[in-house]
Specification:
With about 475 residues, the protein is mainly α. The protein is built from 21 helices and no strands. Helix 1 crosses helix 21, helix 4 packs across helix 16 and helix 6 packs parallel to helix 8.
């Protein structure tokens, strides 16, 4: 790649992952919210570091990026941030800066290291260099080692008794970052056994850029909190039009995504050389037709049973630990599809790129989001309708989905949900009745959503050029 191409690739990845991270903090949190920035990271790698061959395999990279960025969503970090940001001269957060810095760097690093490894290992997998059992054992081990990791690093934990792990970066919340430590350990061992030091370098780079990006975002957030009036002016900042939290998220995504992309861009010759040997014809799942995608959809639908089950137990007066459902979701949403993708399944890659993110959006917005709105039935209706339309459309055109189609989902679909939230009928009604003024009603929603709309427009335009 020329120096100019390297710069463009870093700018694209930083811009795209910044958008994905801004959306994650708005629409969907947790593991499912991390799917979008991961998919955009994969797209950036495919189109900018793979040469012309990357355009033929972009869905493999988008799906792999999404389903491995997924795991970082298990980490809780709000209280960890408070150790870093608090200016209290007493209380539980006082004089805990070191704990905050280490915790944030660790969690951000773990988050981006996993997709760094996966995106570097994928081209070699597509050459057929890995045996079926090697790929199956690698990803099937994720749920098991995740469980072991939490038992090693994140216990004992008993909030009521005030018992917490020795390595603990929160005040009283349950932490699960140990699961990602073990996943990275597995990926490191796999890379070393296969002699893939390139993948090891990508994992290390992801750890450094993820950790540094998270810290940078928090520094910017802290500056906004303390000096926002001077920087943005009292009219904008004082009236709530500036959201420092979103600045943090966008900065985190931009630095971490752009930094990881720099590694792939500077070493693109490695990718190009490997992809010359790619022939999906020799991969075991290349002719799966719709089978792997159907399995992926069935597994995801199986996890959706949690909603009627939770409602049933609530009626019976029993509380269900949501963590139980999340433990079940992780292998079904990610580990199994990753096996299919690394074994060359085009349908699983297409589903991971489009179907998984569509399902996550519909699930969140038709079941959980807009709960406080008196118009929630109306707001949720488009997303409930998507439950019916998207599977039918997807399976009739699964192998014809373009980058442009995918980017429409990532932008119009996800940003559209934000627009409905920021400018929903409840807020408009309150403003028209003069119950609140304009800034209190819409406030940062105007600038944040406006920024997301602008980013969406740019990404749609760029997808037309790249497609």
């Amino acid at each position: 790649m020329t120096p100019w191409s390297v710069v463009l690739s870093v700018l694209f990845a930083g811009f795209a992952v910044s958008y994905g991270w801004g959306i994650r903090g708005f629409v969907i949190g947790g593991e499912k919210g991390a799917l979008l920035p991961g998919a955009l990271m994969g797209i950036a790698v495919a189109f900018f570091a793979m040469g012309d061959a990357g355009k033929d395999f972009w869905m493999f990279f988008a799906a792999a990026g999404a389903l491995t960025m997924f795991y970082g969503g298990t980490e809780t970090y709000a209280q960890t941030m408070s150790f870093l940001l608090s200016r209290d001269k007493e209380g539980p957060y006082y004089n805990q800066l070191k704990k905050g810095v280490i915790g944030i760097f660790l969690k951000g690093g773990l988050w981006f290291s996993i997709p760094g490894f996966a995106l570097a290992l994928l081209p070699t997998a597509l050459t057929g260099a890995y045996k079926i059992w090697e790929v199956a054992v690698l990803f099937a081990s994720f749920p098991a080692v995740s469980f072991i990791g939490t038992k090693i690093f994140n216990v004992p934990y008993d909030k009521k008794k005030g018992i917490f792990p020795k390595l603990y970066f929160s005040l009283d919340r349950r932490e699960e970052w140990g699961s990602n430590v073990m996943i990275i350990l597995v990926l490191t061992v796999f890379s070393l056994v296969k002699g893939d030091f390139y993948a090891l370098g990508a994992g290390i780079t992801g750890f450094i850029t993820g950790g540094a990006g998270f810290l940078l975002g928090l520094v910017l957030y802290d500056i906004e909190r303390r000096h926002g009036d001077k920087i943005f002016g009292k009219r904008l900042h004082g009236k709530g039009y500036i959201d420092g939290w979103k600045i943090m998220e966008h900065a985190f995504g931009a630095f971490a995504g752009g930094g990881l992309m720099l590694y792939f861009a500077l070493t693109s010759s490695h990718f190009v050389k490997i992809l010359k040997g790619v022939s999906l014809v020799n991969l075991p799942l290349v002719n799966d037709k719709y089978i792997c995608a159907v399995i992926c959809l069935a597994l995801m639908c199986l996890t959706a049973v949690q909603y009627p089950l939770s409602a049933y137990f609530e009626k019976k007066g029993k509380n269900v630990d949501i963590n139980v459902f999340e433990q079940i979701e992780r292998p079904l949403w990610s580990a199994v599809p990753l096996i299919f993708i690394f074994l060359g399944s085009p349908s699983a890659s297409a589903f991971g790129t489009f179907g998984t993110l569509a399902f996550a959006l519909c699930e969140k917005c038709s079941v959980e989001w807009y709960e406080r709105s008196q118009y929630k039935k109306i707001l949720r209706f488009p997303f409930k309708l998507m439950w019916v339309i998207l599977p039918l459309w997807f399976f009739f055109s699964i192998m014809k989905i373009s980058l442009f189609d995918t980017m429409l989902l990532y932008t119009l679909g996800y940003t559209g949900a934000c627009v409905l939230y920021s400018f929903g009928p409840d807020r408009i009604k309150a403003f028209l009745k003069k119950e609140t003024d304009f800034s209190r009603t819409f406030g940062s929603g105007l600038t944040v959503t406006g920024h997301l709309i602008l980013q969406s427009a740019v990404l749609i335009y760029l997808s037309l050029i790249l497609d």
